[in-house]
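Whiteboard transcription, Tuesday session. T.W. wrote the structure tokens on the left side:
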């Protein structure tokens, strides 16, 4: 694999920075130590968080690549950075729910912890100012956020990812409660899984204790936030001696 140089910054989000490289179709993604919740209303900095999310995302993306999932991830560069295909992100967040919790319970008055008979797939419009509202597939089609073929592919890939991740985490004693995915299109128009897959974007519950091993520890002030992220990395990496 060729070595790419980090050039000018082209984007900075809540958790990552993107940089140009010598190849206009490839970008270097650098993870930040920032925590945000509630569409950016709650913020904090925790040293080491970016490293953990990058390591976890690289490990998970590598696993999904082996399953044939089309994605922007190419390879890990170092503990903070990864190389990826440059994509234009669709303005949709895709949420998969296996167990009821979070906004679903609040929105519908449903008890937390119900195992759903099949995965629930939801679409949200990416707009912090609007609070990332829940939308239907018709919204996405009528407002040009995605085509019918893209929505069909997004749902098919999303459900494949859900199946794969459950099989990855179940032997590690981790329950995949729900998670968020984002998708983008490369310069040829190919639809690719993008963004990250980490405790920032997934809800993980310890199968034995029910402990939260994800960003809910930050959202709900449960404490030991980085400890939860470290636990996920330890289990994924198979090395119990280091985070």
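and on the right, the sequence the group agreed on:
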């Amino acid at each position: 694999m060729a070595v790419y140089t980090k050039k000018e910054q082209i984007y900075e989000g809540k958790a990552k920075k993107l940089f140009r490289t010598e190849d206009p179709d490839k970008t270097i993604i650098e993870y930040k130590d920032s925590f945000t919740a509630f569409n950016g209303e709650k913020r904090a900095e925790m040293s080491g968080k970016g490293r953990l999310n990058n390591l976890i995302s690289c490990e998970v993306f590598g696993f999904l690549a082996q399953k044939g999932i089309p994605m922007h991830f190419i390879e890990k560069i170092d503990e903070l950075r990864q190389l990826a295909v440059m994509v234009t992100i669709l303005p949709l967040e895709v949420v998969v729910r296996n167990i009821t919790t979070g906004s679903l319970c609040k929105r519908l008055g449903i008890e937390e912890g119900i195992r759903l008979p099949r995965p629930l797939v939801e679409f949200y419009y990416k707009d912090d100012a609007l609070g990332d509202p829940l939308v239907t597939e018709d919204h996405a089609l009528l407002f040009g956020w995605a085509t019918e073929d893209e929505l069909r592919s997004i749902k098919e890939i999303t459900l494949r990812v859900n199946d794969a991740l459950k099989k990855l985490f179940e032997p590690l004693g981790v329950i995949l409660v729900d998670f968020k995915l984002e998708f983008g299109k490369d310069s040829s128009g190919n639809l690719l899984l993008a963004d990250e897959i980490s405790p920032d974007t997934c809800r993980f519950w310890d199968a034995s204790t029910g402990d939260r091993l994800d960003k809910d520890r930050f959202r709900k002030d449960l404490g030991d936030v980085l400890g939860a992220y470290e636990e996920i990395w330890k289990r994924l990496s198979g090395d119990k001696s280091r985070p």
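Someone added at the bottom: The longest strand covers residues 88-99.
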